[in-house]
């Protein structure tokens, strides 16, 4: 008697299962990406409509639009969890730069105060 086939232990389905799982994962990722694109497009359209309404109000009441300074926004990576981790050297360099900034601010502040005191003293002292 051979019970292997009755129990389902022939072992030939492992490759098919992996391929199916990979295909399902690809389809799931594609569906997520498409949904995200649709969401972004929807919000872009909504913002266009809002801006049109804002412009109509500005035109009606003769209001000038405030000029916004648009800074170059850093390119956001697709997945923030997958961003490149900083090395200890990079972290140390950033910390050192921040310290230098603090020391530079303090130095400038002290120099300003010394110059103010100097002008006050020179104003009180009269050379004959």
SSE topology:
Elements: H1 4-7, H2 14-60, H3 88-124
Protein architecture, described:
There is one protein chain. The chain has about 130 residues and is mostly helical. Among the domains are: about 15-65; about 100-125. The chain has helices at about 5, 15-60, 90-125. The longest helix is centred in the first third of the chain and has 47 residues, at about 15-60. It is flat and about 105 Å long. The N and C termini lie far apart (about 125 Å). About 0% of the residues are buried. The model has no long low-confidence stretch (mean pLDDT about 80).
Termini Cα gap: 126 Å
Residue fraction in strands: under 5%
- Unreliable stretches: none
Global mean pLDDT: 81
How many whole angstroms does the radius of gyration measure? Answer: 33 Å
**Relative helix content:** 55-70%
Quaternary structure classification: single chain
The tally of strands reads 0
Put simply, the count of helices is: 3
The general outline is: flat
Major sheet summary line: none
> Structural class, from secondary structure content?
mainly alpha
Q: Sketch the topology as an H/E string, one letter per element.
A: HHH
Keywords:
mainly alpha, 0% strand, 69% helix, 3 helices
Overview in brief:
This protein is mostly helical and about 130 residues long.
């Amino acid at each position: 008697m051979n019970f292997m086939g009755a129990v389902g232990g022939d072992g030939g389905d492992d490759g098919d299962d992996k391929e199916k799982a990979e295909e399902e994962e690809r389809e799931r990722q594609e569906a997520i990406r498409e949904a995200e694109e649709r969401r972004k497009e929807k919000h872009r359209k909504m913002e266009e409509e809002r801006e049109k309404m804002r412009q109509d109000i500005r035109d009606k009441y003769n209001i000038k639009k405030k000029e916004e300074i648009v800074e170059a926004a850093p390119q956001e990576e697709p997945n923030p969890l997958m961003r490149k981790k900083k090395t200890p050297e990079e972290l140390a360099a950033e910390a050192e730069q921040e310290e230098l900034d603090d020391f530079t601010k303090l130095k400038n502040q002290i120099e300003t105060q010394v110059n103010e005191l100097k002008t006050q003293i020179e104003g009180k002292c009269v050379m004959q």
